Amino acid sequence: MTPPQHPGAASAPPPGCPAHPDPGAVPLLGPRFQNDDRARLYREMYEQHGPLAPVLLPGDVPCWLVLGYRELHRVTSEPALFSRDSGLWNQWPNIPPDWPLLPMVGKQPSILYTVGERHRRRAALVGDALAAVDPFELRNHAERFADRLIDGICTRGSADLIAEYAKVLPALVLARLYGFSDEAGAELVPSINALVDGGPDALRGRDRVQAAMHSLLAARRTAPGAGVASRMLRHDHAPEFTFEEILEDMVVNIVAGHQPTADWIGNSLRLMLTDERFAASLSGGRHSVAEAMNEVLWEDTPTQNIAGRWTTRDTRLAGRHIPAGDLLMLSFAAANGDPQIRPDRTVFTGGNSAFLSFGHGEHRCPYPAQDLAEGIARTGIEVLLDRLPDLDLAVSPQALVWRASPFLRGLAALPARFTPTPTSAAGGQG
Can you give the pTM of this predicted structure? Predict the structure, then answer.
């Protein structure tokens, strides 16, 4: 079967091709992917199908979910066979113009869907701009914004640590590092969250974020500064890309940097507040924070499943025939729990960092971006525990609710209580 090079370029596949779903396929947006025990679902799918399982996207559109650690490693290591070019998809003739996953799967001008040498040069532009962030500057901004947010809740004795802390801190820090003022960054936070939440305000949120990024880039063209935006514009590879491409990468990076980091903070706090192995060290050594953050990347990684890769020709994976143009969804969460890699998930990983939570291969999350996320998350957790040392859940652990998303893993809310404390002068300093 010859894959179309763009939407609508080929007729529907004949019987026997992936257009005819496997009767055992699980709907990716169905209730089983939205329950709390996602790990059990992955194990059951692995037992039934092996490391590669058929799933259904909205409209009964079929694709493959890569569950196995070794298989995901292979798919992300062979870009010539498993491409990031969504134009290869053999399902485009069956996709309506209002399909809900088009923002995730459709062809985009961002770095996410660029391939080959052009992608490598574009990735160097982004990675170098992020790598130049001073770690002391990062820590300073993260501490200052964390103090400011805690000042807003500390006198009350209770707070929702997701809405009032985790979903705000990363966006504030990243906006400042990119080149926004504190005030402009604060105004941007609701729009970033509206975009990533995917609700009725998502498009308006994206428009506002894009407009703010456009203004920042345009200003830095004539008046360069010290932020990421200026470094991207001044990079040696910048002349190879249009203003619009650099703008798109700015939007992608701040959004992709914010939400997983917010969930990393929230998921780590949940683990530390609900798992007795961490309870004794909440007010103790820093190592407990690092251990909790590492454990979360194995057990409740913020980025669960992403689209994806498209086969450039017929091939085989995990003993299955994969036709050209098929979509493979990458399940980082399932791969991290692969029973061939982790036969006993009750055992702590002990700081092992071989997780696939940031991806793998040339399209993985850039290492500097991973460092920024870790710096923001760890600082945010440490400052919170320093300021509110008797922090505790305000509800039972069983009452906590995960957001209903098969793609990201994060809490809808994290109600907490603590002894009211006075505000800190540090939070108000610019």
Answer: 0.90
